[in-house]
Amino acid sequence: MAKINFERLVLKNGLEIILHQDTQTPLIAVNTLYKVGSRNETPDKTGFAHLFEHLMFSGSSHVPDYDTVIVNACGENNAFTNTDITNFYAVIPAQNLEVALWAESDRMQSLNFIQQSLDVQRKVVVEEFKQRYLNKPYGDVWHLLRPLIYNVHPYQWPTIGKKIEHIEHATMAEVKDFYNAWYAPNNAVLSIAGNMNIDKTKTMVEKWFSDIPPKKVPTLHLPDEPEKREKTCLTVERNVPASALYMAFLMPERLHERYPVYDLISDLLCNGKSSRLYYSLVKEKKIFQEIYGYIAGSYDKGFLMLEGKIHDNTTLEQAEEAVWKELYDVKQSLREYELQKVKNKYESAFISSYINIMARAELLAYYQTLGDAEWFNTEMKKYEKVGLHDILSVFETCLIPSKSVVLYYKKASL
Amino acid sequence: MIDRFISPETTNVFNIHIPSVKVCQCSDVPLYRIDGGVQPLIKLDVFFQAGDAWANNALIPNFTNALVLESTKKHTSHELAEALDFMGAEINPLNGSKYSCFSLISLTKYFPDAIKILTEMLNEPLFSEEDFVVYRNNMKKQFFVDIQDVSYQARRYFKALLFGKEHPYGKIVDENDFDFIVPEQLKDYFTRLYHKKNVQLFISGDMNNEVLNILNRHFTLMDGTFPHFNLPSVVASSSMSRTIKMEHAIQSAIRIGKTVIPKSHPDYPALQIATTVLGGYFGSRLMQVLREEKGYTYGVGTALVNYDEISYFVVATEVAKEATYDAINCIYHEIDKLCTEEISSTEMENVRSYLLGEFLRSMDGPFNIMETYKAVHNINLTMEYYTYYLDVLTHIQPRKILEVANRYLVNDFIEVIAGDIE
């Protein structure tokens, strides 16, 4: 596979910069990642990192409207927040790169704090909360599951927040504190990818970002989520057309050597029509209407998740039993061929994940945040190295009832 | 010190090259080809003229495509899935009112083997009772989940109201459809439509002649006759509304729209620009009013959906239940304003820049270019459409926006609300 080439520099104020040149595109992606997410929140003020992301579009001292500046330069832009990071990006024609740097640096340096923006964005985020979580069938599942998976770590609430009230009660003083604490050059990675002259880009970046003063960024001391010692169960009843089973297992943090093992296991179990659980439980035994497996990878301990809706002629107890049986069977019958299959699947998915420059800029920033942008190029090797014994040992020691979190999401009886 | 009040200079004049698509033949089938990309990936779309217009049960096109990707006369669905998964290749079906497409994405190195599997699926599907029953039961369950979602319901009834449930474009899935569909219908539909005389291929990505030779050697299809079909003509929509009562919904989904001119009409680019002013980007009027001023919604947008002979315009949003009627009034008010007042030159330039950028992005990389090409090719237009579009976009003035809004966005709106309202 072709290596993704890039240059890296660090400004005096601590801002890390990644530059990746691709001359086949007329565009440039500017990706600014702040190392702040919902893990930086306190239990009584959740959803704040995401609300703050919205406020980053309220204008700054010299750029009254970020979005209009980018649009006028023929660009598009957006942002997302997760448990660990808040990520802003703009994709702009190469000729207009500098204006994106100007606007991005200005909101890093001096964001506007406007009460009316806060008032409106609180409402917008509440509607987002409803649209994605409260007004969708099964939408509240993360609010049920996260507190079961995490007892002490802030991952116990979803990024959108524990409840609507937390967002409604956010104050301007808190907004300012948050900005002053986390939105600092020394807490960010700026990644630029596309059709650029590297030297000229370096000069532009220095021009606009180097005079932003660094801040004293707080050190987080987050508790390590302890391993589960006994099975955690919860049953809820909801007005849904099908009962659903959710099974979660804590897994190691993003940089742990076993992280790829869990990732491959989730594919082995549920990715594709030939995967273990899909083939056996959806096609053969017809217990599940659908089944999904995936990992929530994160800085700190993440989790592996198995979830599916079941058919009416089965109970959730039977469905769970069937999953356990499959997990047991994998241990007995896993062969090298099947491991190679999921590695190949991973290779395809990984290569497909950075077709466009926006994805490349974002991934480079993310790997740099983890510790080294070069890991983008070595990631696949980590997956290639996984052996049968690595997989089997996770099945043996971690995917077991005493370490499971099981949610029965039951169709209410009429 | 730098003066931050001075914005760096920008341009919106670009040397835009509209790429050409190579046209050739592969096993007597038209093949459209775009080379390039930095990753060793190939995408092949096998595109049949099929879809709702040729089926009397709205589930048939979807079910046929799904079952084509299951067992064949030579191999079980599990064997085929194993082989595809081993290559990390994916075949995804896509259904439209007038087309059915299988999209294969694979690493270049696995493409020859993936092609063999796809060819086998397209030539010898089994449509087994077993595969069928599993799929039907799963889809039926999913249907009951979907209809609990306000936006699904609003979308569904909007199209039915716009085109009429009898018209292929307005067909919607009903619970009963699941009880009346049988594998024989799929076989029949398949035999009529999935053959050599009714197919086109689109290939893009990391291409070379060897890949094409392989495609030529392995891709074959049964012969057939061109399926003539007279689509009932579409009647322009007339003013109608419908409310779908959904207990306990805390947001309402709103769809407001109407039929408009097809993409081939000379006024179409101007109309597209006008609807962008209304709801096509973050700075659009509806987004600013409904989201950024009133905080009623997380998002609102407009879309133009194209068929060969007609298009439709739609405003779509989900809003707080309490704000439902005020939001609807705002939507009509903004449409009305667009039809009666010229937009400012500032707004004109904003939209022009936004759409120029969109255009550049749609031409970035072989996969995007192919999608852009298909969007015109499939409604019988050519890449020349984009030359015309760019010309209109570069020169359009507020007066023309007002003119097309006033001509195409007045009266006869279809309005659908799904939510917990009376």
Description:
The complex is a heterodimer of chains A (414) and B (422). Chain A has helices at 48-55, 66-72, 97-109, 115-134, 141-149, 164-168, 172-182, 198-209, 259-270, 276-284, 316-333, 336-352, 357-370, 375-384, 388-397; strands at residues 7-10, 16-21, 27-34, 76-81, 86-93, 188-194, 232-238, 244-251, 288-296, 302-310, 404-411. The model of chain A has no long low-confidence stretch (mean pLDDT 97). In chain A, 42% of the residues lie in helices and 19% in strands. With 414 residues, chain A is an alpha+beta fold. In chain A, helix 3 (97-109) runs parallel beside helix 8, helix 9 (259-270) crosses helix 12 and helix 10 (276-284) crosses helix 11 (316-333). A 6-stranded mixed beta sheet of chain A has the order 1-2-6-3-5-4, sandwiched between helices. Chain B is α+β, with helices and mostly antiparallel strands. Chain B has 15 helices and 11 strands. Chain B has helices spanning 60-68, 77-87, 111-123, 129-146, 150-163, 177-180, 183-193, 209-218, 268-279, 285-293, 324-340, 345-362, 366-377, 384-395, 398-408, and strands spanning 22-26, 29-35, 41-48, 90-95, 100-107, 199-205, 240-245, 251-260, 297-306, 311-320, 414-419. In chain B, strand 4 (90-95) and strand 5 (100-107) form a beta hairpin. The longest helix of chain B has 18 residues, at 129-146. The mean pLDDT of chain B is 94. Classes of the chains: A alpha+beta (414), B alpha+beta (422). The interface between A and B is large, with 80 and 72 residues.
